[in-house]
Write a structure and sequence with these properties.
The protein is of the alpha+beta class and 921 residues long. Helix content is 57%, strand content 11%.
Length: 921
Amino acid sequence: MTKSDQVPLILAPELIFDIQAVYDDIRAKAQELSGAELRAHVVAVLREGNTAGRAAIAEAFAASPFAARAVTRSYTYLTDCIVRTAIFTATEFVYPNATPTQGERIAAMAVGGYGRGEMAPFSDVDLLFLTPYKITAWAESVIETTLYILWDLRLKVGHSSRTIRDCIRLGKEDFTIRTAMLEHRFLTGDAELAGKLEEKLNKDLFAHNAREFVSAKLAERDKRHVKQGERYVVEPNVKEGKGGLRDLQSLFWIAKYLYRVQDVEELVGLGLFSAEEFDVFAKAENFLWAVRSHLHLSANRATEQLSFDQQVEVAQRMGFQDTAARRGVEVFMQEYFRHATRVGDVTRIFLSELEASQQKEEPLLERIFRRRPRVKPGFAVVHNRLQVEDPDAFLQDRLNILRLFQEGLRTGMLIHPDAMRLVTANLHLIDNKMRQDKEANRIFLDLMLKHGNPERALRRMNELGVLGAFIPEFEQIVAMMQFNMYHSYTVDEHTIQVISNYAAIERGELEDELPLSSDILRKGLSRKVLFVALLLHDIGKGREEDHSIVGARIARKLAPRFGLNKADSETVEWLVRYHLLMSDMAQKRDIADPRTVRDFAKAVKTVKRLDLLLLLTVCDIRGVGPDTWNNWKAVLLRALYGQTRKALEGGMEALSREHRGHEAKSKLRATLTDWSKADLKRETNRHYPPYWQGLHVTAHVDFAEMFRALHEGGDQSAIKICLFPDEDRDATRACFAMVDHPGIFARVAGALALVGANVVDARSYTTKDGYVADAFWIQDSEGSPFEASRLPRLEQMIRKTLNGEVVATDAFKSRDKIKKRERAFNVPTHITFDNEGSEIYTIIEVDTRDRPGLLYDLARTLAHLNVYVANAVIATYGEQVVDTFYVKDMFGLKYHSESKQRTLKKKLQEAIKEGVKRAEA
């Protein structure tokens, strides 16, 4: 928001648009052309000039990708030239008026962003045609001709025709119109009329109702933030989002309305901004305008959403390069979020101060009788905000910086803008001596442990730079974006969300949703250990080395600094190193396999660590995004926790297949009370041990009923299907019973994919008498169980595919393409073989890019290679998926041979590549 006439263009004016040469050409053509013919010629000249001018600006911008102010001014200059030429044509040649009456005067004004002199490549052209009185026939014709020329150029024009009186009246009624009028700029026409508008606006409109205008802008800002979301969302709106350009513009509008400034820099002289704050403002504004301009040019249209595919393109345009540790787009987005955070800091300080200054004095009785919070010595209450009483005395003890946040939590008060400024201006006081100070670390831990809402203090400390200064290792993850569809927040905000989740459990707010976690907390655990682990669990991100290993190293150094004893420090280090272990075991392995639980129990070693790890895992998953946690993950984690705790407390023999098989058969007999002993015996003898430990009794009942129906029917080609809405797991259980034959698992996977079902778990069990029991857990595109009303239709479509009426391979060629915005993700494929994780199966883990039909392609490839798939566990992380297969060869043996593993890996990789080509075609 600098004065547009003071901003240099990115090129010399004549290289953008030579307006004098165009005027001369039009004058010459007007000697031989008139009316529609002349207008058509002007449109052709302007179209050529507009195209050439835009190309010249874009080329210069590519060479200087951060010259945002010059670019926005250049597009404004080009637009000015086009609008002035159109009006020049209309008034001088199409509708010349040699002797205008007093009412036949017109002034063309730019308003809004165009009036401010800030235009992105595809910004709207907002015009006000000003007349002294009611619009005349001549003025109407001039305006119409001007607009037709601009429309023929495909410009997006917003226009209004008003008198000065109209402008005042409408400005009083509508704050949006008043804001647009605030940024009017004279283009061409009657300068005296434009000057009179300026005078009347300042006298009759802008001199009144300042409080209402400020309140309206603040309310508008809050409403916009609710709609757009936090500034940490991974696909931000550059213009309207939190920390975006509109926040800066709101600040300028208010400043201009209240103080009549024409440039934000003038606020420094008024004492409303420090020189450092203005510098932050200017740099953030320049960066955001550069991003917005590159975004328009990349998309070749007006778009403000920085979608994933555009993030890659804009990052490349602005010169951000890939490094060994991070992609260029991640570095770019971290820079974006850092600027968005600074915009939030600057606007919050400025607007909070204005908000306080606009508050009316409270009535006398209210001031006397209302109880104010009592603050500790050194602090004061100013406009209901926590203020520092004496800045010089405050800074004498650098620990007061931490005490400010402590007092804010204790009293529940917001921090005064001046106190925020004091902190940000003195971050250098947080040096290594202060970081090692025992009292400083005690205060810091108390912020997390003693007040019930640690996330509030941590977020404010992070925004003001205190958190990164006190923990330098944390600074690296501030505003760090993880370029994927799984994480909804930057790493620092994710960390704060994780701590917020834990605090909510402690406050009893998630009792119904997280009964196990709540119960563990009631029984007691080391809160200090858990809070430190939560704070540090992702602190190692953004390095070349695995972030869990780096984070554990950092935790080894920081935990003792925070005052933890040796044993607790070791526990924190272990939790950070293995904070993904429980999530991976639950989501990527078959927790019905005794070896899975046994290996996990050996890694955890104690119930104390198990409790801590469960809480950390739950809070971590919930902190990834608003829709990441679901009942499916809850069931998996509860099951893994319960079995592991039983093994740790009662011994590993409790996990034996035989023991669990006996339990499952007993439950089935107890449920099927109306079955004969012969039928029950046939059913319990039909299955191998893995079947009994891998499914719930409700599934055992469904399969028993289906197999009995198959036996009684005698039709070897029959397929029995049972769809069960398993709402406890947020999934639909799809059970299939049929005669076993090669490739049946792949056919079922293909049928499910074709009906739009996402498989989250799958198990296949052959029986001793030649049948197969396949159980799939599926979700719809929204990650929910299929509605009961859809199940009959779903079953019909699945049956058609299994009966061969639809060939899955052919059907996938014409459907389910990867969306454009999702194609920017680079997910390398990793295929690993594990012969230790299961007693009887080889575990093949395929980590790759998720897409429709992937499970089908992988299962079909394994079937062609005569690989028996016992079960598949599917873990999806945004655009990334980990498909884990428990397999045996055709002789029932594991795949120990390296040559066989290489063959399988090669074929699976080929199937993945072919599927990607199909999805991106």
